[in-house]
Write a structure and sequence with these properties.
alpha/beta, 4-stranded mixed β-sheet, about 20% helix
Length: about 130
């Protein structure tokens, strides 16, 4: 199991506002919140990976096409949750990459949506169940 993932962002305040809205919908709770970093942990004592955000020390745009992080996928409990998270992300100014749908190229059931955060990082909400 991965203990935590650290992500550098060009605007920590913007990231804090954006992820502060989305992470509770994805099953995460605030773990740490200081001037130079913030983090989330799986809510309600569930095991899982913590997510840390740091201010980038060098300028440059993120690209999922280069070597490095391609995207982050968050497991949600229902197909409705997939749509709910994407709707909120769009309200926050995100761009949709893939609308909520089944992806037959992955082992079923695989219902997911993909979008870009304010910095171009691709995020995914995925439900591995047939429940609405």
């Amino acid at each position: 199991m991965i203990g935590h993932i650290g992500i550098n962002v060009p605007d920590l305040a913007a990231a804090r506002a954006y992820y502060g809205e989305l992470m509770p919908l994805l099953g995460f709770a605030e773990f740490l919140n200081s001037d130079d970093e913030f983090a989330y942990l799986p809510a309600n004592g569930k095991p899982g990976t913590y997510l840390f955000f740091y201010p980038a020390q060098e300028s440059g745009d993120f690209s999922r096409q280069r070597t490095g992080l391609q995207h982050l996928a968050f497991i949600v409990p229902t197909r409705t949750s997939v749509s709910t998270v994407l709707e909120r992300a769009l309200e926050l100014g995100s761009t949709t990459v893939h609308e909520p749908q089944e992806f037959p190229q992955y082992p079923p059931p695989y219902f997911a949506a993909f979008w870009l955060d304010p910095f171009g990082l691709m995020l995914e909400a995925v439900c591995h169940h047939d429940r609405e």
